[in-house]
## 1
Amino acid sequence: ESDGWIKKISSQEAAYLLLGLLIHDIGMLSQDVKYIPAQQRSKYIKGSSDIANWVRRTHVIRIEGLMKHILDDYIKKDSKLEIHLNVIIGMASSHDKWPWQQGFVSCHDEIRELNLIESRIAALNAIIAVCDLLDEDSNRCDTIVLMKHHHGTVENMAHWIRHALTKEVIGVSNQEVTVIFRSITSEIPNFEMVYRALRNHYRLVKLYN
């Protein structure tokens, strides 16, 4: 807010942004293959026996099916709801892409129908992506318990460790991101590589400038 961007968006844009943020990771709460679009199901079904990695890998592609299943009764009562929902789902799904990739802004017809501006939707999508990247602090999970009692993959453990070492994300101000890391002893092999990886992860936010 200190950078002033929040005062420059309309109430309509703010509503779509808020809803996009709320549902952008909803696919992480579901393990059901049926929410993958039928024409893409064979592509994404591989690896579904490894639940943790499969859920993470497919959580975005399943957002639309999951949300429309949840809101099916409301969609049937109000046909216009789906137009708004498509834009919100498109925004929520955008955090799986880089700004220069095709599909970072989707639902072009709906955006025009709602008198929205694609370049502004792209900016809102960038905000969702940055929020997703910065949602990494140690409050996300109990890393010690997970490492001790869960047999996660290397990727799972990397996420858990990143959460544990991120003490606090202060936020973005004046186009700068401030993150406080926990310190670990320099006696641990390759400890500098760990912090270099953490810094590189958070520096990805610059790609959405």
Note: The radius of gyration is 19 Å.
## 2
Amino acid sequence: NSPIVEEVRKQVESAIAENQKNILAGIQKAVSEAVETKYKVVVAQLGTDNPKKDSHLLQIMLVVVPVLLTVGLGWWVTRSQTEITRKIDEQKQDLTTRLALTQEYQKRKLDVYQGCTKDMSILLQALEVLRVDATDQKASSDAVHDLYDCHQNNPLYVTNDVAQLLSKVEGDATAVMQKAPKDEMNMDTVERDVVAAEKRMLEELTA
């Protein structure tokens, strides 16, 4: 059962329990007043030994009881409708708030991932420059550092999967830089790492 249905059920049981005595007292009072006004007799309690009065009382109750029950039911329906409306409004407000927070989170996540993608692009360009001058590693080192900062400073938005892939990009790029002065540079591994990281980021943003 949904929370609203369960709440309505509880309200029904509570309303019946709380008002049972009041309804019975109201019936007796209404019957007594009706008899005193119209018939000028005193209504005896149920269980009297006078069959005629019992019969008369029963006839009056058959008229009054449905009216009182209708009033009680109307009160309960109104109260239940008000409670349901309140809960629906609360759920709408909660949904609106969550949606706004989700949209803001996704926007910030997109900004962070775009920044990381830009850092990887700069890193690849720096490694290409390193092919020309193997001794000039400043641009490559700065790019690796910026990429590290991108995921380390944004743990709320960068998932563990993406962080691991970005770390692999940094590690393999550093290995290429270390080999640059003495060995021929091979950037295939770094490029594959970048493609894998970008693919995972795109999957998360479009999920």
Note: The first helix runs from residue 3 to 39.
